[in-house]
Amino acid sequence: MTVKVGVVLAAGLGKRMNSKRHKVVHEICGKPMIAYVVDELLAAGVDRLFVVVGRLEDQVRAVLGERVRFIRQEEQLGTGHAVLQAVPHLPEDSVTVVLNGDCPLIRRQEIQRLMNVAAEREASAVMTASVDDPFAYGRVMRDEQGAVMRIVEERDASAQERLIREINGGVFAFRTPDLIGALRKLTSDNAQGELLLTDCVAHMRAVNQFVWPVLAEDPNDLAGVNDRLQLADVEARMKTRILTEHMKNGVTVIDPSSTYVHAEVAIGCDTVLCPGTSLEGRTVIGEDCVIGPNARLVDVKAGSGVTVQAALVMESRLGDDASVGPYAYIRPGSDIGAGAKIGNFVEIKNSVVGEGTKVSHLSYIGDSEIGSRVNIGCGVVTVNYDGYQKNRTVVGDDSFVGSSVNLIAPIQVGREAYIATGSTITDEVPDGAFAIARERQTTKPEYATRLRMKLKQRIR
Ligand code: UD1
Ligand code: CA
């Protein structure tokens, strides 16, 4: 079988983005643009994959890692010049699949279809689309047989040529020897003064090497990102694609327009996403959960039957049937046990909360290990920071911590212990012990009336 080599172009400056970051590392639904292109090419079955990089290459290398090989284009002299840099790596008898790094909506099936056409016709092929607004894209000029004669860039096109609505999607499957021959003939005799990959088509045609157009199933798949407006446009399309996939798999999305799910998120069957939900990073949600309204989960692993309402949960785990919110904040490193309840205005940070434990209202639990079936009363605070370091709090299974208790860490409370409300606990509480640490009440009969009179006199 003919070897298939992928070449992704990502050396261009992306000037129209006006960014300190390389264009192709900007995220679409939480995933760098170029990572989509690379993933789809690999899934389409290329045997080897090269990414041409130049300025800000470290950023591109950082997001792609070891999955691909990198080729440097020292000076950005055009898309044709970029592909020329890959020539030494292209085996004579191969197909070279070229893609721009700024087209994240491209799908593996479409790349495969393109490669199949090239193979069947023993020629090259280019993905095209007929669009309403072809501005800024190369226009595709066909001959009577339907093969591409040449591609003309916006800036080089005559008024007549600009009326053509079939555009070059920037996705090619080239017969490698034909490509190499044409690349060597490129000149910078064009409006951009660059070596344009698109000019290869006319050079090939001049020696009877054909390039067949393959119309994209959905023209939107070819949308390129050159500026931030297109970035937002592609983001919206990708978001719809992701939500559609989840809905097909049995997830209810009550209001897709206000629901946001990143590319790498997994969601179980019969889970309901309520309006204002944002699932980000590598979040995994089990079955039968109700998430939202107004919930943001970032890198969260949630079991089944979990409910999260009006809450922010970061880098944490939520056990089966746990319930969070409303108005809760779970910070990184937390592990909420099955059936546990984290209620309103509770903050949990870097803590384990055991199965069935309730932290129902107005508490701060930080750097703690709370056992199972513990009741944390209203307004309990783990005092974990002494101004220099964070200290740990441990509360054993089946204990009861009354309302407004301060647990001054480092502190250890045993199992089945009972801490009286309003206590400030500084010493270890053994298993089964009762601890109370507060002033005794003083009541002065009728003193309230006298006090008021005294205070009134003062303001006269
Ligand atoms: C390009 C095509 C155009 C097509 C459109 C599809 C050319 C000349 N034009 O235009 O016909 O309709 O894509 O989206 O090919 N790059 C390099 N090195 C360079 C220049 C560019 O690696 O010297 C890379 C860029 O990083 C980018 C890709 O090539 O990923 C395309 O460059 P860009 O400037 O975005 O081309 P377009 O104007 O969009
Ligand atoms: Ca582009």
> Can you name the CATH architecture of the largest domain?
Alpha-Beta Complex
Question: Any low-confidence stretches, pLDDT <50, length ≥5?
Answer: none
Strand residue content: 25-35%
* CATH fold field value of the largest domain: Spore Coat Polysaccharide Biosynthesis Protein SpsA, Chain A
The level of helicity is 10-25%
Structure explained in plain terms:
The structure is a single chain. The protein has 9 helices and 41 strands. The chain is elongated. The protein has 2 domains: about 5-220, Spore Coat Polysaccharide Biosynthesis Protein SpsA, Chain A, CATH 3.90.550; about 230-435, Hexapeptide repeat proteins (UDP N-Acetylglucosamine Acyltransferase, domain 1). About 20% of the residues lie in helices and about 30% in strands. The strands form 7 sheets. The chain has an 11-stranded parallel β-sheet, covered by helices on one side. It has a 9-stranded parallel β-sheet with strand order 14-17-20-23-26-29-32-35-38, with no helix packed on it. The protein is α/β, with parallel strands linked by helices. Uridine-diphosphate-N-acetylglucosamine binds near residues 10, 76, 78, 81 and 170. Uridine-diphosphate-N-acetylglucosamine (UD1) binds near residues 10, 153 and 224.
